[in-house]
């Protein structure tokens, strides 16, 4: 949505902010969906004793996301910071799952790399 010079600035601002709010809601839903999949990965890693982090995959993902950011005219540094933040949270969840698995009878543990 773009502001028209003849529109009320308050109405234009409200409309633009509504678009931002809609995008924020979509991002939250996408992040929730992403974390559902990363929880599956964490359970699999915990059950098989794989480390919580995978630095090689993270490097590949950073390069891929930086390229996507450039294509989308988004600052690649910002994209990398976002990804690093998300991965840290995912690893934290994986470590908790590994700790839970090792505490359960027959659990194989896991842990951070």
Helix and strand run = HHH
Identify the CATH architecture: Up-down Bundle
Q: Helices and strands: which structural class?
A: mainly alpha
- How much of the polypeptide forms β-strand, as a percent range? under 5%
- CATH T-level fold name: Chorismate Mutase Domain, subunit A
List the total number of helices. 3
Number of strands: 0
Radius of gyration over all CA atoms, rounded: 20 Å
What is the distance, rounded to the nearest whole angstrom, between the alpha carbons of the first and last residues?
A: 46 Å
Q: Compute the average pLDDT.
A: 87
Q: Would you state the CATH class?
A: Mainly Alpha
Instruction: Give the % helix.
Output: over 70%
Write structural notes for this entry.
By secondary structure, the protein is mainly α. It has three helices and no strands. Helix 1 runs parallel beside helix 3 and helix 2 packs antiparallel against helix 3 (76-103). It starts with 8 loop residues before the first helix and ends in a 10-residue tail after the last helix. Mean pLDDT is 87; it is low at 103-113.
